[in-house]
Amino acid sequence: QTKTGIALLYDEVSENAYDIRLKLTKEVLTIQKQDVVCVSGSDHSAHHRTVTLRRQPVGGLGLSIKGGAEHKVPVVISKIFKDQAAEQTGMLFIGDAIIQVNGINVESATHEEVVHLLRNAGDEVTITVQYLREAPSFLKLPLGSPGPSSDHSSGTSSPLFDSGLHLNGNSTNTAPSSPSSPIANEPKYEKRWLDTLSVPLSMARISRYKTGTDKLRSNAFEVLALDGVSTGILQFYTAQESADWLRAMSTNISDLTLQNMKMANKCCSPSDQVIHMGWVNERLEGTDSSQLYKFKFLALKGSSFYIFSTPPTVSLYWVRAEKIYNLCEVLFKIHKLWLADDCWLQANFYLGIHQDFDFEDQRPYCFSVMVGHGKSHYFNVELGSELAVWEKSFQRAIFLEVQRTGSKTYMCSWQGDTLCFTVDFALGFTCFDSKTKNVLWRFKFSQLKGSSDDGKTRVKLLFQNLDTKQIETKELEFQDLTAVLHCIHSFIAAKVASVDPVFIDSQSIARKYMYSN
Questions:
Q1: Which portions of the sequence form the region Disordered (predicted)?
Q2: Do residues 29 and 205 lie in contact, with contact meaning Cβ atoms separated by under 8 Å?
Q3: Which of 29, 132, 332, 493 has its CA 20 to 30 A from that of 138?
Q4: Can you give the pLDDT at residue 477?
Q5: Top-tier CATH class for 3-37+193-249
Q6: 34 touches 133 (CB < 8 A)
Q7: For the chain, what are the domain ranges?
């Protein structure tokens, strides 16, 4: 998507926001700030401009001012009136900070002091200005062209209101003075939007939260490039604008990620393809609240689920993953969705295994990936559509791995005997002696009627005998019981999907709730 619009750049240190323009293309987000540039003539000072105004009997200097030292900002020109003295010079612009008045420096002056100086400066006023690129938004400076000649400014001087009418002063001239106009050889100036920062969107990430916390920024977010360069906090005037920009940028980042996946897959075997990858936030358990979340890059590739601190931009970097798990032995679970009526949905995707999480954080679109030995990773994404993609991608990656693998065998024991337990996509469950290889029992997936476990090492599997219709209980002990239970779930789900894919789609929590709302 391509998009252009006005936004604010929020400075967390000064707590001020500045007008900027955003330009979004397929590959880059560009931030522009307004500045005054010399378009012709010799520009002796790129930053400062000195202009002489002739006060007119009607309209005075033809400008209004705002700001002052009491608000920790310089006095700036807030209005320039059409066909009056300031506009006729062609060298003054809304947003110009007044540096000097008739040679007197006013950079640290209050609003009232500058008003008094301009009022009593005589019929010819020489001012030196410099465009204030980061004018705080509380000044509410217009971004457009000069306004109409009528001035409805407040007659009372105030730093946050336009002071204009009283700048006429006490002119001694009774006849109209000659208008202020640019001299032939004077440089010509224009106010333009200039590029100040370009952020590549390939492998970029977006955050609506204050760094590391679960505190949501109001109508604002930050975009960070792969190399760590940040846009700063982009703030929008309405929630709708913020949502539109968030979706547009996320779409472009996703499209570029898809391109990167296709490029990576050209170098990978058919059994080692990248199914999906992208940025998430991982909740850090047992840490102080200021570092509650951290960016992580996840990838589903071949037989494995990868967790990275930075994306694997080249094939050699895949070995640098912080964690690598076999896809047959993980369990994807959705925890939170934000519905249209702003209520929370707590969803348990798999009822056979239960694990409690602390849900005090206020982030929507949360999911966990449960791994071996009862451990879990808890993640959050920015959009409901991203959550739906992760759900579908995990499902697809796990099903493909089950079909490729065909079977998984685990060492186990019961009553002192060392056994092997195999989960087979075609045959179901088989238990055999690890030494003699003699099969002790075998059941189809459809014969499994229930299970229970002690949460540690021991599990009871309840099978129905096809001949007697009686339930037979088989007890086994595993070193990593969680991984085995996840594997059983993966194989059964893949088996159901191969028989009835429509049923599996109907169980999609994220797609069901996000798209219906």
A1: 143-186
A2: no
A3: 29
A4: 96
A5: mainly beta
A6: yes
A7: 3-37+193-249, 48-134, 268-404, 406-504
Instruction: Go through the chain and tell me how many residues it has.
Output: 517
Collapsing DSSP to helix, strand or coil, 512 comes out as: helix
Say if CB 2 and CB 244 are below 8 A apart: no
Write out residues in the chain with pLDDT < 70, as ranges: 41-46, 143-186, 212, 286-291, 336-362, 503-517
CA atoms of 467 and 469, how far apart (whole Å)? 6
Q: Quick count: other Cβ atoms within 10 Å of Cβ 465? A: 11
d(CA 157, CA 119): 12
Domain 406-504 fold is: PH-domain like (2.30.29)
Distance, CA of 67 to chain centre: 33
Quote the pLDDT of residue 144.
56
pLDDT of residue 149: 47
Using the Cα atoms of residue 210, residue 216, residue 217 and residue 221 in order, give the sign of their dihedral: positive
Tokens standing for residue 137 = 């938004």
pLDDT at 352: 34
Residues 385 and 383: their CA atoms lie apart, in Å, by: 5
Nearest to 43 by CA among 35, 54, 31: 35
Domains 3-37+193-249 and 48-134 share a fold: no
Residue 516's φ and ψ, nearest 5 degrees, are: -75, -20
* CA–CA distance, 23 with 12 (Å, rounded to integer): 23
* CATH T-level fold of 268-404: PH-domain like (2.30.29)
Q: Could you tell me if 356 and 486 are in contact, meaning their C-beta atoms sit under 8 angstroms apart?
A: no
Tell whether domain 48-134 is in CATH 2.30.42.10: yes
The phi, psi pair for 515, rounded to 5°, reads -80, -25
